[in-house]
Design brief:
CATH topology of the largest domain: Aminopeptidase
Strand order of the largest sheet: 1-2-6-3-7-17
Largest sheet: 6 strands, mixed
Distance between the termini: 24 Å
Mean pLDDT: 94
Helix content: 25-40%
Bound molecules: ligand BES, manganese (II) ion
Low-confidence stretches: 1-18
Radius of gyration: 25 Å
CATH architecture of the largest domain: 3-Layer(aba) Sandwich
Length: about 475
């Protein structure tokens, strides 16, 4: 008599081969049959201007949450709730097949960045159009949020639809779709603390990043942290005539720009004391491995219309935008910017500054170091105020976790290639929070491209990328469940 162990293995193996043989064919057939509807649903979602940063769009943000709820129900979730928070609601959905099976928690965001400057868009940001381009012969959807993150989030909803309608969902699934990611996810920490049980999972799956190229699949293994501050320099108590007072009192704009210029030295190192103290230095081997990823500096420059790259001495472009911390002014204003000329010494000048952080910098510590440094920089005659906004820790994930292995196999299935692990320069601050609060690893399966222009005018998402995502995601569930069993 065969021991039970083998018996179990035999049945599992049969189920597995059935899955493996048919799933690929069925998903492609299913996507072909439902292609137009799946695109139209995304287009409809993109029409709602869910701009979380601008209070004028509050009703639209809330409406988007309702639409996401409805779509999750239609896709096969058993329970979907709109969870109120101190900020915008979080949409929670689940389909629990069997408590003994593994659980995948999908995170995404339904809010979008403001579309400004609107005049630089070729078509209105909330009137999606599908246009064919050289890179996207199947077309790309042009709209704010098409890639970041409505399009990528919605791939998961459609992957769920495929799995539930075709009896291909091998495990449990939970969804947590928030509406404040683009403004710092403030309510998410609040929600996590109160819902640890509800959100319990074996792995977190997110599509809110990119991949190297359509024929070079990659999995994001790192995100940078962030410290975002606003600074205000105040000189005289009112705007002054620049002839009567010019040269005799400190001009806050002159001072602010001088202070900002001093934040980098000639080698483009950041001058804030202690800024690099905890920065994780990669080994020569790790850096060599990174440099193997395909990259063309010429293409990079020509895509941006620049004649040279610029950055920290001693590091390559890919290192500068992933494993090294940065400091950048995001906006600066003050004085007269209306038509014509007005001779004035402004009373105040302002700037918004972001610092991208890497392991093991602590964002609150960096914010404090910046504040100390910046305040010390100010000469007599002005007052400086540093107001911290939001922030978050960096994240790196190993490539030998169950989740990474499952994702890697999924890409092998649908791209026919092993994906390259790659650290990204962007930030999704809640990912490190997930690890701390929910004790689980996050797998970042991004299907966007650098050229998608997220946060910029003419944001778009390839139709091919959208469907490739929907096709790849069910394979992740398949392999993850298999590894966990
Ligand atoms: N999806 C992006 C982050 C991203 C994009 C990471 C591409 C990696 C590759 C996310 O929506 C975002 O924009 N995050 C913000 C931070 C947030 C706190 C406002 C960012 O990175 O600026
Ligand atoms: Mn995003
Ligand atoms: Mn974003």
């Amino acid at each position: 008599m065969k021991p039970n162990f083998y018996k179990k293995f035999e049945t599992d193996f049969r189920i597995f081969t059935r899955h493996q043989k048919n799933a690929m064919a069925t998903i492609q057939k299913y996507l072909e049959e439902h292609k137009d509807r799946m695109l139209q649903e995304l287009v409809d979602l993109l029409k709602i201007p869910s701009i979380s940063a601008d209070k004028a769009y509050k009703a639209d943000v809330i409406k988007t949450a309702d639409v996401v709820k409805q779509r999750l129900e239609e896709a096969g979730c058993d329970v979907v709730e709109i969870c109120e928070t101190p900020g915008y609601p979080i949409v929670y959905g689940e389909k629990i097949k069997d408590k003994s099976l593994p659980t995948v928690l999908v995170y995404g965001h339904y809010d979008v960045q403001p579309p400004d400057p609107v005049n630089l868009w070729d078509s209105p940001p909330f009137e999606p159009v599908i246009k064919k381009t050289e890179l996207h012969p199947d077309g790309a959807i042009y709209a704010r949020g098409s890639c970041d993150d409505k399009g990528q989030m919605y791939m998961h909803v459609k992957a769920l639809e495929y799995m539930t309608k075709n009896d291909e969902l091998p495990c449990n699934v939970k969804f947590m779709i928030e509406g404040e990611e683009e403004v710092g996810s403030e309510s998410l920490g609040w929600f996590l603390e109160r819902n640890r049980e509800k959100l319990a999972n074996d792995v977190i799956l997110i599509s809110d990043t990119g991949m190297i190229a359509k024929d070079v699949p990659s999995i994001t293994t790192g995100l940078r942290g962030l410290s975002y501050v606003e600074v205000e320099v105040t000189g005289p108590n009112r705007d002054l005539h620049s002839g009567l007072y010019g040269g005799a009192v400190a001009n806050p704009i002159n001072i602010l720009t001088k202070m900002i210029a001093s934040l980098h030295d000639d080698d483009n190192h950041i001058t804030v004391e202690g800024f690099y103290d905890k920065v994780e230095e990669l080994s020569v081997e790790e850096r060599e491995k990174m440099a193997e990823a395909p990259f063309s500096l010429e293409n990079y420059k020509s895509a941006l219309d620049i004649d040279a790259v610029y950055g920290e001495k001693g590091f390559s472009t890919n290192e500068r935008n992933s494993i090294r911390p940065t400091l950048d002014v995001n906006g600066i204003w003050g004085g007269y910017i209306g038509e014509g000329a007005k001779t004035v010494i402004p009373s105040k000048a302002f700037a918004k500054i972001s610092m991208r952080l890497v392991p093991d910098q602590d964002w609150q510590e960096i914010t404090a170091l910046f504040k100390l440094h910046f305040e010390k920089l100010a000469p007599k005659g002005v007052r400086v105020e540093v107001k911290p906004h939001h922030g978050g820790q960096a994240y790196v994930t190993p490539i030998d976790s169950d989740g990474y292995k499952a994702a890697s196999k999924a890409y092998e299935k649908t791209f026919g290639k092993t994906p390259i692990p790659q650290r990204s320069g962007g930030s999704i601050p809640i990912v490190s929070l997930f690890e701390r609060e929910l004790k689980s690893k996050t797998i970042l399966m991004g299907f966007g491209l650098d050229s998608d222009a997220i946060h910029s005018p003419n944001e778009h998402f390839g139709v091919w990328n959208y469907f490739k995502g929907i096709e790849t995601i069910p394979w992740f569930y398949h392999f993850f469940t298999k590894i966990k069993k």
